[in-house]
Amino acid sequence: MFPSDFAWGAGTAAYQIEGGWQADGKGPSIWDTFCHEKGRVFKEQNGDVACNSYELWEKDLECIQQLGLTHYRLSLSWARLLPDGTTRNVNQKGVQYYNKVIDDLLACNVSPMVTLYHFDLPQDLQDQGGWKSPAIATHFDSYAKFCFQTFGDRVKLWITINEPHVCAKLGHEDGIHAPGLKEPGIAAYLVGHNMLRAHAMAWHSYNSYYRPKQKGAVSLAINSDWFEPLRPDCNEDITATERDLAFTLGWFAWPVFVTGDYPEIMRSAINSQSMKLGYSGSSRLPRFSKDEPAILGTADFFALNYYTSRKVKPGGGCGQMCIKSDRDAEEILDPSWSVCGVSWLAVVPYGLRKLLKYIKDTFNNPAVYITENGFSQIGPLQIEDVQRCEFYKDTILEVAKAIEEDGVNVHGYFAWSLLDNFEWADGFSVRFGLFHVDFSDAKLTRTIYQSGREYAKMIMKYKRETDVQ
């Protein structure tokens, strides 16, 4: 059913779990700054301490072992390693911390998947223009090379950038993520462009200088919902669905896997909206330079973050220059789908199978890792989280069908998340963990949810089945 070397994992991110925001020479990140501004985060919460994984790593390791994971996805804090974002100033305490994490994982027979960037840009680089500045790509490449050099002898799976779509849109258009900018219709496309340039530079650096010896694999984690037409027989809904996929998945996957450029449907939609609104500047969606490292082919596997699905029809614009108007696709929740915790998270396991099949057919049948997928809980704590147990069973069954019936080359599945943690603008009000963290207790006690126990059983069961084969 699952390949014998299938990666069974769970994921976390540095800012969401580590805490130690000023400890041992770490520099400030944009999320430190954002959370310390009034009115940005639920109840003014922040990641100053979070799960305190900077001091309680051994507790996290116990959780990982209890689940029987074969892989663990973590992210490095750029500002913990390089406080001002550059290699001029290396924080050895940060290097020691991640060396210990990686070495401890390997000693327990757990393979690390390491993300270089999970939303937390060093504040010093933000002060120089952040992801809007073309120079950021070179800074990122230097950081990436530092990490490949320092940790790459032991890390064989790398993610350069997590969810560039979220960084671009939520951070620079909607302003609800750090750095909290609201520059609709322009900044997000520029940020996405520079993230792709940064990713490509880092991939080429790895390919030229590190791959021959280290023999690892590098990709970027692309988030997307599954979209289907509200009325399956309506041409307008079908076209709106294609546009929505292009503006979400295609924005970052198309340049890397298909043409080296953005989807034509995306570019033409943006240009026609610009004309309609009388925008006379150069195209809001930049073009890749022939003088820079090629974007096409800069992923050794497809890393997918999937959470939910939507029905689509034309509309949903704001009447002015913004991504929503460019996209011209209104997303609708099917009333038959149950919603878990946060309002946007409808539970649609079959959507993952459909999206995997779409990726196989559209992007030349790549190896796929599902790098995030999860189920949230809000309100009163339920350690016996029966719905989440069902969710994981149903979802993993859909992944099995994608492998067996659709022939999708799925190599791994990472649940989000190992721990309840700091969920960005939602603070600690939303819980995705396989382990509950008691944030009201100074010890930050970790307690396994029923879903954690069930996930561990599933891993054991599927491992046994592949051993028998």
UniProtKB/TrEMBL annotation:
Belongs to the glycosyl hydrolase 1 family. It comes from the Eukaryota. The active site is at E372 (nucleophile). GO terms for molecular function: beta-galactosidase activity; glycosylceramidase activity. The keyword Hydrolase applies. One of its GO terms (cellular component) is cytosol. It comes from Seriola lalandi dorsalis. This is Glucosidase, beta, acid 3 (gene/pseudogene). Signal peptide: none annotated. GO terms for biological process: carbohydrate metabolic process; glycosylceramide catabolic process. PROSITE patterns: GLYCOSYL_HYDROL_F1_1, GLYCOSYL_HYDROL_F1_2. Keywords: Glycosidase, Hydrolase. Pfam families: Glyco_hydro_1. InterPro entries: GH, GH_1_N_CS, Glyco_hydro_1, Glyco_hydro_1_AS.
